[in-house]
Amino acid sequence: MTHTTSRVSTQPRAEPVSTQPHAEPDPSALLLVGHGSSRAPHARVATDRVAAALRETGRFAEVHTAFLKQDPSIAEALAAITAPSVTVVPNFAGEGYFTRKVIPAALAEAGFPGTIRQTTAVGAHPRMEDIIRRRAVDALQRSGAPTEDVAVLLIGHGSSRPGGASEAANALAERLRRGCGCAGVHACFLEEAPFVTDWPTLTDAPVVIALPLLVAEGLHGSQDLPPLFGLRPEDVTDEDAPPLIGPLSAAGRTVWYWRGIGSDPDLVSVILRIAEEK
Length: 278
Description:
The chain folds into two domains: about 25-120 and about 265-275, Rossmann fold, CATH 3.40.50; about 125-265, Rossmann fold (3-Layer(aba) Sandwich), CATH 3.40.50. It is α/β, with parallel strands linked by helices and about 280 residues long. It contains eight helices and nine strands.
């Protein structure tokens, strides 16, 4: 079979922020806040790893992590910071209840004596779209399938609350759909319709790229999603698991599955940019 060339549009990527060590670090601290999970201890791994990479850049006097569902808490992390100011970066896939309500409330209650500045969530930064586009293209190329035989599933968290939380994922799917040449780009969700559990009904494409818009392999990323695409939980939580897993077989289709975006090497550059923007 003759394979066609991928026609997924790749927008010009923003100039990357250097991640090389700096001789003169910012005197402030960086606090990376993840969701974590009391039932999935490995949910912290992605945030801990990117924090370690951020320390190696030498950009900040201190780099700490905190979690909503694991230790250390935001209050505990702030208590360990000696710098006079701290930039708080939510390591979340998008803006929502936790970034707008829970994290600000925890920061206010902690009583940090210095200055606190909370940034936008990592997943809400415009450069994250570059990562998603690149992942779609990489999987298309790895599959070797004609683009018209491939569908992309963008898997968001969504929300069971009235009004949902699907706008960003649906808008991203629409942008990716234009000029893609694929059988389709579909947004589906864990907690609102269309549900990811119904993904086989969203497309009849023989090849599917599953692209979760999740930062880490928490409870959703390790327990809920993998079985839907022919994977076991340990296939995505193993430290040696590749970022892109496939080919797999599920629902009579060939599947390529991306692990959480928290494993992407470009995330360090994105977080540095977020922290430096005023």
